[in-house]
Amino acid sequence: MKKNDDLPIDDDALNEARQTFSEVEPKLHTFVLACKVKDIPKNGSRGKVIFCEHDEVAVYLIKGKVYAISNICPHQLSPLLSEGYINKDELTVACPLHGWTYRIDTGASVIGGGGVPTYAVKVIDDEVWIEDPAPRDLAPIWPDPLPDEPDSFD
Ligand code: FES
Question: What CATH number belongs to 31-131?
Answer without folding.
Answer: 2.102.10.10
